[in-house]
Design goal:
heterodimer, A: about 325 residues, mainly alpha, Fumarate Reductase Cytochrome B subunit, two-stranded antiparallel ribbon, 12 helices, 4 strands, B: about 45 residues
Amino acid sequence: MFRTSIVKRLLLAVALSFSLHAAMAQPAPAVRQDAPVSGFNPDSVEVHQDELLANQRLITGRITLPDARARTLIQPDGRMWRDYQRSVVPWIAAVLVLGTIAVLALFYAIKGRIMIEGGRGLATIIRFSSFERFMHWLTAGSWCVLALSGLNMVAGRFVLLPLLGNETFSALSRLLKPAHNYVAFPFMLGIVLMLLVWLRANIPNQVDLNWFKAGGGFLHGDHPPAGKFNGGQKMVFWIVVLGGAAMAATGLTLMFPFVVTNIFGMQIIQVIHGLIALLMIAMMLSHIYIGSVGMEGAIDAMGSGEVDLTWAKHHHSLWVADELAKAEKSPPSPAE
Amino acid sequence: MRMFLAAVVVIAGLATGASMVLDHFQTPSNVAFATSGARIDPPE
């Protein structure tokens, strides 16, 4: 009896052992092993993506990286910003840049080049000093790099990528992106220099109002009086100075991420930076047009610095009168 | 034309200077975000 009981117990133990091994080898039981202890199941059954993205400004996790900002897994608003960058901004750029070029081309087709009435004379007058021309080109040259590299960020993938191919476009973009940051500094210096040197001559006055009322002489052909800078040039000056200051402030904020503001603020600042830039590009295209192919004699002001006296009398009559009056007051010393 | 060329030279010089100053202050992402438990490959 005792022996039989021991044998039964041994058999039971062996059977139990086999059944335990078999049970451990079975697939996962009905209760999921990855189910959290809290009972909350963060999968698509209970969490709906659209609701989550609509209700959470930041979806964060737990990390061991030293930078706490890296715990943000998803920033739902960032998707809206990304869509705006990829879909809306290229259209704004196309409308502003191509629209401005189209308007200028139409203007040129209708009006042609504005010529010097009576042709060029023999006399010239110094319009801009060497330093004035230097700071103009310092600002203009760096602006060209900034504008082209910025446009590449906005529309390069649509315009240049199909033309250049992946590798060339990638290499070009990797060159232009840091150039955009570094060339910003000579641009800022140029803005400061222009403000210091040309501020006094660009304070708006009644003469400018009359200049605008007369359409700047572009519509009827008569030249309204103007000082060293006419109303249109003063407008360009203030757009460059104020727009440039805004571009510098927003650009520096983007250049040093998270120093001034968080990701939400940086996205807003980036939108402002891009919109001001596109408006400035459109405005500067008009400035470039009228300073080069649009008007005979205008480019000389920033080329040699000397302009045709007849041209100057037509477009800046008050300034010429002042300069001639100064020259009469201080006649050149006689030759020894 | 001389002033234009001078401006181009100064732009290149200032941009180069800015790149050196900024590079001095900036830390590459593979260094800034690396820890003893997380290593990030350097950019190519």
